[in-house]
Write a structure and sequence with these properties.
10 strands; binds calcium ion; binds beta-D-ribofuranose
Length: about 400
């Protein structure tokens, strides 16, 4: 049985009545909200009835900016903090960019705490080629008036999680340095974290090297700490985010909005499209980070499968690759018929063959398959954009 089969079975009426989306609809009077019959017949995620406590760990970054605006426009989320980290551009830029988004959304109630300037053990690699020198595709917003809180990011994460054990989801849309620092500094913390919803990784090739997705590539050791922490991970990787390319039509929809959030997003979106076209990229900017936020907003958006995921940290060419094991997929998969007759499928977690002369390591790293990740395998992109544009323009969905 795959994760889709196991998922909660709710009819549309029950979903509307019980979901966070439905709840939000009723709290906003309902009339501006319309939810169409979903493409996926059942929700693939558990459905919340109260706002989820979240911390957003981010490196804005054009698509991070969209994701922050989407999150701050979403009543399903109770944002306990935003923790910028170095990634797309250095912290000196991601921090003020996050503060700017908070001001634009009128959400200065949310604490913003400065995170790590450099990855755990590597030199920082940035992505100005995709996000421009200022991280916002050259879009200029005023200097932020508000300041970050004094507490560093890792401490904010620890304090908030410890104050609400089992309740806080970490939405990570940048390199995972801050979260790893929080976990490494408190070995009791991991079981208190409800989940990590991560834009990161890929099961189908990378975007900075052929193997690695950018966020995991920048700090693979940190990503490994997170995947091995025991916290349930929802991985919204390139496998699905690649299917969410921005188009000029979407930019024009944002531009038609009088809403300051829609206007700000429109400026970033237009500059991003122009920058990408000038640079000759064959496909438009993907809405990577917003899709990770949206995973918590609409249980019908994506289809997930379970994997044990680990991160390659030592490869000369492949560091940052997310390696996913499952007895239900790949060349060695078995049939459900076989499972029915013989019991639950299992597999060992096998690593690279040991080098000659080494007797100390076995290629079997773990004897049994215990999944640590729900990886998104498919997405209804039109549904995502409807949600995204509706929220940012203040119009619907
Ligand atoms: C991820 O890397 C960054 O460039 C984006 O902001 C996104 O988080 C996509 O690989
Ligand atoms: Ca990002």
């Amino acid at each position: 049985m795959d994760s889709n089969e196991k998922s909660v079975r709710l009819g549309r009426r029950e979903f509307l009545a019980s979901s966070a989306v439905g709840l939000a609809a009723s709290s906003l009077g309902g009339s501006a909200w319309s939810i169409e019959e979903p493409t996926l017949k059942q929700p693939t995620r558990a459905v919340n009835t109260t706002p989820s406590r979240v911390i957003i760990d981010t490196d804005p970054g054009t698509d991070d900016a969209f994701a922050l605006l989407l999150a701050m426009r979403s009543p399903e989320l109770k944002i306990e903090g935003i923790t910028p980290v170095s990634g797309n551009v250095p912290l000196e830029l991601t921090l003020p960019n996050a503060l700017r988004m908070v001001e634009i959304a009128g959400r200065t109630d949310i604490p913003v705490a400065a995170g790590a300037k450099v990855p755990l053990v590597r030199r920082l690699v940035t992505a100005e080629y995709a996000h421009g020198n200022n991280g916002l595709a050259g879009t200029v917003f005023p200097e932020p008036k508000i300041k970050p809180v004094a507490e560093p990011a890792a401490e904010l994460i620890r304090r908030v999680v410890r104050s609400h054990p089992g309740e806080v989801t970490l939405i990570t849309i940048g390199p995972l340095t801050n979260v790893a620092n929080a976990l490494l500094g408190d070995d009791q913390l991991a079981p208190m974290v409800k989940s990590v919803v991560m834009m990161g990784g890929s099961l189908s090739g990378g975007n900075i090297t052929p193997s690695a997705e950018f966020n995991v590539y920048v700090d693979p050791e940190a990503a490994r700490v997170v995947f091995q922490s025991g916290i349930p991970v929802t991985m919204v990787g390139l496998d699905v985010t690649r299917k969410t390319a921005l188009t000029w039509d979407y930019v024009r929809t944002l531009e038609s909005s009088a809403d300051p959030v829609g206007q700000a997003a429109a400026k970033i979106a237009r500059n991003t499209m122009e920058m990408d076209e000038k640079a000759g990229y064959a496909t438009g900017q993907k809405m990577h980070d917003s899709l990770a936020v949206a995973a918590l907003l609409d249980p019908y958006l994506m289809r997930f499968e379970k994997f044990y995921v680990d991160v390659e940290t030592s490869g000369e060419l492949s560091a940052g690759e997310t390696v996913a094991y499952s007895p239900y997929s790949g060349d060695l998969r078995k049939t459900l018929e076989w499972e029915k007759q013989n019991g639950k499928l299992d597999m060992s977690i096998r690593g690279s063959a040991p080098l000659l002369g080494r007797t100390d390591i076995s290629p079997v790293l773990r004897k049994h398959w215990v999944p640590n990740t729900d990886a998104a395998m498919d997405v209804d992109s039109a549904r995502f954009f409807k949600l995204f544009l509706g929220r940012l323009t203040g119009k619907a969905s």
